[in-house]
Amino acid sequence: MRSHDSLQHIEYRAQPVVGADGGAVFLINDLCNLTSNYLDTRQVNEIYRAYLFSAEAHRGQVRASGEPYIFHPLNVARILAELRMDHQSLIAAILHDVIEDTPTAKHQLAEAFDPDIADIVDGVSKLTQISFESKAEEQAENFRKMILAMARDIRVILVKLADRLHNMRTLDALPAQKRRKIARETLEIYAPIANRLGLNKFVLELEDLGFAALYPIRYRVLAAEVKKARGHRKHIVKRIEHAIKQRLQAENLPGKVLGREKHLYSLYQKMRNKAVPFSEVLDVYAFRIIVDSVDSCYRALGTVHSLYKPKPGTFKDYIAIPKSNGYQSLHTALFGPYGVPIEVQIRTDDMHEVAESGVASHWMYKSGQDSSNAAHARARKWLRSLLVMQREVGDSIEFIENVKIDLFPNEVYVFTPAGEIMQLPRGATPVDLAYAVHTDVGNTCVAAKLDRRYAPLRTPLVSGQTVEIVTAPWGRPNPNWLNFVVTGKARSNIRNYLKNLRRGEAVELGRRLITQSLAGESLTIEDIPQDRINSLLGEFGLADFEALLEDIGLGNRIAPLVVRRLVPLSEEPGGETVRTASRNTKSAQPLYIKGTEGMVVTFAKCCHPIPGDSIYGFASAGRGIVIHTQLCKNLSEYTKRPEKWIDVEWESDIQGEFPVEVRIDAANQKGSLATMAAAIAEMGANIENVVISDRDGLYTSLNFVIDVIDRTHLAQIIRRLRAINLVARIARTRS
Fold it and tell me: What homologous superfamily is domain 658-733 in, according to CATH?
């Protein structure tokens, strides 16, 4: 490290320099001056030393704009310094690319500076030594690595967000396609993370920059309209602001009143999501009142309500019940002068600091003060939940999808029977709440009471409800829950349970299939030498025999073909090739279907096989065995793969119910559907689905999917329906 040369380089760059965008370049001298306002001299010197190290490491590297690369880490550090972050964060920001983009190793940073700083830099660095099958997998794995590093030290994400913010500010130097890709990732991942951590300053700029890069024409049109409308609004804003200030002074409530403008991306989102024109979105006038205490917040609320009439149903108390990112404020909407709508936020100075800086305020330099805050505590809780989630998901792509779900909360607040407040994303169900309480509660959930009344588990929760989860030792997660749960924790836990359950079912089915195939050779599994099994496992790259059985059960490998590899061939003196283990083979017994095999035996929806039908089994990769009827029209597609067909028959003792489709042509009269449904229910069958289509003015076609026990049960239902006068024709459909 040539520190003397680097020092000369700094002094040279300390002269006025013009950046690629025509503006003045932020230099190390500027950073030292900025940080000297709140850090001690020793810490500022460490930041300067980090600059020397980074400048040497990045020597000769330039950005897409043509600027020396060192300008980028300096600006990342500047963003954090403006938040008054601690010196370790600033050093990590200056060094954040040296592991990824230079030969410098993590242990060198730990030796030169501090192990904590090295951990932060490593957490921000991408995985560069591993090859991935796809770009999506690479991005997802890098994201998972960063999340795990965040759980150890939240400053990792603060450095990453500052890095992303400066990259977004200098995005114009990149090609259009790359700009759009980075902008979309910013809007989908990084801005929501910043919001989840309460970093409002980051959120607003990341969203507007991302909006401008992803939809440049929409951005320019909207920006021009806002600029045009701003002049017409000034006198109304000033009048309302003056009226609020005067009323607060009359009530002896010292405080600041600030008019605030909604940023462009939030205007765009409202226009798109609510399908309203620009004039309606911009017609809302927003103000923020900042006072000295919580008591003053509620007094100020009463004051503005006495000044302008409140809009019913719009008051939200985020002081008593803070948002998930620690945000606290009182929100209300009012009818202002000329009938214009007014939005007002009321908060204290401390609440305002947390609202703007969120979790970053935990590290803000506050001499002699306790720097812990609610935002930091909530962020730690969220990160712990992510750690649990990442242990239970199958891969990085699934993990990032589950995290995305949690990044768009829009909360509801419900109460447990003990009075504890639980916060969940909008649209959450009792199952989401059960998993939020504890994984075991979710796994054994069987019912729920909303305000003391039983309700379906798929019912969306509403703020203010008291929710009681009913559990039972025999309760188990239902695959259908995945259709309505909204939290990442619930989704990952259900999938994890079903994955383990499915593996057990696949192993058991694989054992039955290989036993069936070996029976054709007059053999059992015990007759196969262990060294032969081990040799085949080595060829297939499988860890153990259970893994092979699981592959067979899932349809990834065909049992007869596996048996051919397990049972070697030998040649008779006459030249005939036979199995060495079996001279007198007998035909294998069919695989008997009980209806309780679980997720590894599925019944084709094209033909809806039911007990009593003649059936075929088809080994489908990843799905196990798919059962078709022998009359199914789709069988012709599979005739070229005879090795995947499995001889199957129904077990004599069938359990469960099976869906079947019935088409009824009935007279087009009022109440005909109710009559049919009542008759089906009378015969002890459940209706899964019904599709109605008009044939002509006289008749209507009703396609019912009903659950039956077997063909006899179906015949009884058809006879009962045929006896109804309205029915002109009835038949079972097979496609």
Answer: ACT domain (3.30.70.260)
**Looking at the predicted structure, is the pLDDT value of residue 47 above 90?**
yes
Q: Which string of DSSP letters, residue by residue, matches 237-302? A: HHHHHHHHHHHHHHTT--EEEEEEPPPHHHHHHHHHHHT--HHHHHT-EEEEEEESSHHHHHHHHH
- CATH number for the region 225-361 comes to 3.30.460.10
Spatial contact of 18 and 24, defined as CB atoms under 8 Å apart: yes
pLDDT score at 209: 94
- Fold category of 1-125 in CATH: Hypothetical protein af1432 (1.10.3210)
What pLDDT, on the 0 to 100 scale, is given for residue 701?
A: 87
343 catalytic per annotation: no
Query: Which of 30, 67, 100, 401 is labelled catalytic?
Result: 100
Q: Which residues contact 408 (CB under 8 A, 6 or more apart)?
A: 192, 425
Active site residue 100: yes
Q: CB of 219 within 8 A of CB of 187?
A: no
**Residue 112: what residue type?**
A
Give me the catalytic one of 5, 40, 67, 101: 101
Model confidence over 267-316: pLDDT tens digits? 888 888 777 787 777 656 789 999 989 999 999 999 999 999 988 888 88
Residue 139: closest CA among 84, 181, 95: 181
Q: How far apart are CA 620 and CA 630, in angstroms?
A: 17
* pLDDT the model gives residue 366: 42
693-719 confidence digits (pLDDT tens) = 776 668 888 889 998 999 999 999 999
Ranges of CATH 1.10.3210.10 domains, the chain: 1-125
Q: Which residues contact 430 (CB under 8 A, 6 or more apart)?
A: 445, 448, 450, 455, 457, 459, 461, 467, 469
- Chain length of the chain: 735
Cα 73 from chain centre: 30
Contact at 8 Å (CB) between 149 and 113?
A: no
- Contact by Cβ (8 Å): 620, 638: no
Residues of the chain with CATH 3.30.460.10: 225-361
Instruction: State pLDDT tens for residues 522-532.
Output: 778 888 888 88
pLDDT at position 616 over 80: yes
Tell me the per-residue pLDDT of 424-436, one tens digit each, with 9 for 90 and over: 887 889 999 999 8
pLDDT interval class at 2 (50, 70, 90): very low
Token pair of 523 as six digits: 């053999």
